[in-house]
UniProtKB/TrEMBL annotation:
Higher taxonomy: Bacteria, Pseudomonadati, Pseudomonadota, Betaproteobacteria, Burkholderiales
Domain called HNH nuclease: residue spans: 224-275
Species name: Azohydromonas lata
Keywords per UniProt: Endonuclease, Hydrolase, Nuclease, Plasmid
GO MF term set: endonuclease activity
Keyword Nuclease: yes
Keyword Nuclease: yes
Stretch forming the signal peptide: none
Official protein name in the record: HNH endonuclease domain-containing protein
Length: 360
């Protein structure tokens, strides 16, 4: 087996960030598709890539499925509740409504389903993904790398029908800078929608627009919380003390690090513990229990996710956690143990993932 390519150098990583900044500054964004594509590629690099310099081949259908999840909530009417504003599906294109969004709206009306998880078992879902994949292939995949009056193919190359390949070093950079890519894409996405004049009658000043576009609904979180109480009992995952009536549904791997909801990543916590942990990774004693839990209770957690309309994939959750801890270890990060107590993230953390993979 030939040796794998090493990670890109510090200079190559800086060059990648420079081109990414140019893409946002100089690109032509007539719709929100390019922002969605960047988010999808970054997510898939975390889910499927590795911390080396190897290229990563992707099926365009995988990207199409990510588009379904990204635009699903946005296919619902948005309303502020303020006087003088109406309700409606937000326009995501400077011309006609985005074809991806229109396809999802039509599918939901026909199929009568409320979540992407329910949609996946509907007979017409494959056709929906096929249509959206064709749109993604013809538009954002074709034009994302056009900026500054030229084409700079620094992210991927087309391999023919149905396949693209992230270039050497790109998957590593998307993993390394995943929070930044997400933040930039989402911020520009929100700005694009607010700037569209056809949305003004709906939006007003719309301070919660980003939550509506990208966050899990309160109703879904409540269902997750109810399911976790039944599964784990009314105890805080971190301090193991009784919860009482008050409990937070916490992202074990922080949402700020990987802003995508996965059912196996949720735990119940005291509000105090949740606030103290904040946006940090949890210490090794918590990681050991979390890894054991998502293996032993994988099916029950998947059922909770299905009932709440949230994706459930223990393998992806485990890979995301491994990526997060490896990135933190490489940068000298610390993990939260308890209130005001932290410990260094070292190779022993990463060994937990290797040990579990060996047992599996």
């Amino acid at each position: 087996m030939p040796p794998r390519l090493p990670p890109p150098s510090a200079e190559a990583q800086l060059a990648f960030l420079g081109k990414l900044q140019r893409l946002f500054a100089e690109g032509n964004f007539t719709a929100t598709y390019k922002f969605a594509l960047l988010i999808a590629l970054a997510d898939l690099a975390v889910d499927l890539g590795a911390d080396d310099g190897e290229p990563l081949e992707l099926a365009t259908r995988r990207i199409g499925e990510r588009f379904v999840h990204l635009y699903w909530r946005q296919s619902m009417p948005y309303r502020t509740g303020r006087s003088g504003t109406g309700a409606g599906v937000l326009v995501q294109n400077l011309g006609e409504q985005a074809a991806v969004l229109s396809a999802i709206v039509a599918f939901r009306a026909q199929a009568g389903v409320s979540t992407p998880q329910q949609a996946a078992s509907h007979p017409a879902y494959k056709e929906l993904v096929t249509r959206i994949t064709a749109t993604v292939s013809a538009q954002p995949l074709q034009y994302l790398q056009n900026f500054g009056g030229t084409t700079d193919a620094f992210l991927y190359e087309r391999l023919g029908p149905g396949r693209v390949r992230l270039l050497p070093g790109v998957a590593y950079c998307l993993r390394r800078f995943h929070p930044l890519v997400q933040q930039l894409a989402r911020s520009h996405w929100v700005t694009h929608i607010k700037a569209n004049r056809r949305n003004h009658a709906i939006l007003d000043d719309a301070g919660d627009l980003e939550d509506f576009l990208f966050s899990t609904s309160r109703q879904s979180l409540e269902r997750i919380g109810e399911g976790l109480r039944m599964l784990d009992g009314a105890r805080c995952f971190y301090c193991c003390e009784a919860l009482g009536a008050a409990a937070d549904v916490d992202h074990y791997v922080p949402f700020s690090l990987y802003p995508r909801d996965l059912a196996h990543n949720f735990v119940l916590a005291h509000p105090k513990c949740n606030r103290s942990k904040s946006d940090t990774l949890a210490a090794r004693m918590h990681l050991e229990r979390w890894l054991e839990r998502i293996t032993r209770r994988a099916d029950e957690l998947a059922e909770i996710g299905l009932s709440a309309g949230i994706a459930a994939d223990p393998t992806t959750s485990r890979r995301v956690a491994a990526w997060g801890y490896a990135s933190a270890a490489a940068s000298g990060g610390h993990a939260w143990l308890s209130s005001a107590k932290y410990e260094a993230i070292d190779q022993r953390y990463l060994g937990l993932f290797d040990a579990q993979a060996t047992r599996a």
